[in-house]
């Protein structure tokens, strides 16, 4: 099992176990801001891979770019972590992503529910971060034109028991 060295207020370091590492990650995402992106390298390995339904990037700078784009394209984005699971050097976070779409009078509140699988390297920094969320249900189905088509397809493809 790997341990992470983390500086305390006096600059001294102490070991972080897996549960503590996960708590630190969850707190980071719940407090994510444009300013906090500069600290991403404390949690992520320089060659970490980040994958979600729209992005597949490698490296801290590329991951920061994904989040900068998020801050540039939606209003008031925030994550709420509902649950975490840790097993050795792997973990999973269950979260909701809340934001407002840009658009002045047409801005609306959105919530996307998903999860993140993470894996820590030997030095305790994340080497793999994979987000799982259903873009069809959480995003496309809520759009005006695509939403109607998605609901129609869901009705047609659902088994009679789930209708």
Q: How would you characterize the overall build of this protein?
A:
With 163 residues, this protein is an alpha+beta fold. Helices cover 30% and strands 39% of the residues. The chain has helices at residues 18-30, 40-43, 60-73, 135-138, 144-157, and strands at 4-7, 13-16, 44-51, 56-58, 74-87, 90-101, 109-120, 126-132. The strands form two sheets. The protein has a six-stranded mixed β-sheet. Strands 1-2 form a two-stranded antiparallel ribbon. The longest helix is centred in the middle third of the chain and has 14 residues, at 60-73. Mean pLDDT is 83; it is low at 1-6 and 10-15.
Strand order of the largest sheet: 4-3-8-7-6-5
**Share of helix among residues?**
25-40%
Identify the overall geometry.
Answer: globular
Succession of helices and strands:
EEHHEEHEEEEHH
Query: DSSP helix count?
Result: 5
Largest sheet: 6 strands, mixed
> Segments where pLDDT lies below 50 for 5+ residues?
1-6, 10-15
Distance between the termini: 46 Å
**Mean pLDDT figure:** 83
Strand percent estimate: 35-45%
Coarse structural class: alpha+beta
Radius of gyration: 18 Å
Number of beta strands: 8
């Amino acid at each position: 099992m790997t341990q992470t060295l983390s500086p305390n207020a006096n600059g001294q370091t102490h070991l972080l176990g897996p549960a503590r590492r996960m708590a630190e990650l969850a707190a980071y995402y719940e407090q994510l801001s444009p300013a906090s992106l500069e600290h991403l390298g404390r949690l992520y390995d320089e060659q970490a891979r980040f994958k979600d339904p729209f992005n597949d990037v490698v490296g801290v700078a590329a991951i920061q770019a994904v989040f900068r784009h998020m801050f540039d394209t939606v209003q008031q984005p925030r994550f709420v972590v509902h649950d975490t699971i840790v097993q050795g050097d792997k973990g999973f976070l269950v979260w909701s992503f809340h934001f407002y779409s840009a658009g002045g009078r047409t801005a609306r509140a959105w919530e996307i529910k998903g999860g993140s699988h993470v894996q820590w390297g030997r030095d305790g920094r994340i080497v793999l971060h994979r987000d799982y969320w259903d873009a069809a249900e959480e995003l496309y189905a809520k759009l005006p034109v695509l939403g109607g088509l998605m609901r129609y397809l869901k009705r047609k493809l659902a088994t009679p028991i789930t209708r």
